[in-house]
Amino acid sequence: MARPTKNNAEYFSHDADMRNDVKVKALRRNFSHKGYAVWCFILETLTDTDFFELDFDEVNKELLAADFDITVDELDEIVNYCLKINLLQMTDENRLFSAAHQRRFSGLITKRERDRERLSRLMAKKNGSEKDVITAENGKSGGYRCDNTDSKVKESKIEESKEKESKGKKNRIYPYQGIADLWNEVCVSLPRIKTLSDNRRKKIRCRLDEFKVETEEQMLEATRSLFERVQASDFLTGRQPNKTGWTATFDWLFDNGSNWVKVQEGNYDNDRGARGHQSGSQAAGVQLGVGEYYDGAGRRTYGTGKATIPPTAPPRPSERHAWDSQTKSWVLL
Hints:
Layout: H1 22-47, E1 54-55, H2 58-68, H3 72-84, E2 89-90, E3 95-97, H4 99-103, H5 106-126, H6 130-138, H7 149-170, H8 176-186, H9 198-211, H10 216-232, H11 234-237, H12 250-254, H13 259-264, H14 275-278, E4 282-283, E5 286-287, E6 292-294, E7 300-302, E8 321-324, E9 329-332
């Protein structure tokens, strides 16, 4: 089976002086740090989206606003201003994009096309039909080209590595029914799974490969943790009202490689919007520092929530400080 064509990217070039662009300055003057943060959020989202465009319909607005930790009205206001000053553009199909952002990826897309052609030639050679492929590419009979030997060896090693990885995945057993049962057991506030279609099985398999887990037990454990986070979210379950009445579904969670990551990183957690308000405040009798908050389990933490801060610790001095569990003190990064 051919690998799916990749139409997005994992990162984008962020210029050191982006904040000084005349249009970005205008955005900052009108919306302060929030406007600049949302602009960066949008660029990140576009980078991770096919063809660097995203649907800007009512449902996606709700999802983006929750992800960016702002209201839908704030998102609309900032996006409309970006459209006005031509930082962003909109297609006739209501798809949001940045022309300047897309231009930065033109070279990447061209390179991918060249790589696909090179891989096609390599596979054709292994099947004994390279001459036919070259003839078709040159548009004439009898065409011949001598490939660089080092290049052929390198491509062969890459292909061999991919074949080994593919064989490993073929031998992997995916607990499709177990995952469907887990969803019905944990996500009681959301629509139940009644059937496992081939399309659902395919998406489950793709997401489990992204989870970087090997055994059935690990797959079920990682999936349960994800489902529990979904069920705990007032936004995803509809316990927090929204304009469209949208709620998460099994298909939404497994649809692509972005939605489950956002859930796992806590973008839809109930305490997310309150984190900034807890900094520097008195919570549970403890003075919290910069960026500190209490998570859903009652742990004192900060940032991504990986560190557990003891109640007796002093307030975090700044965003540049991290908790050192060995010395039991804040250290400057």
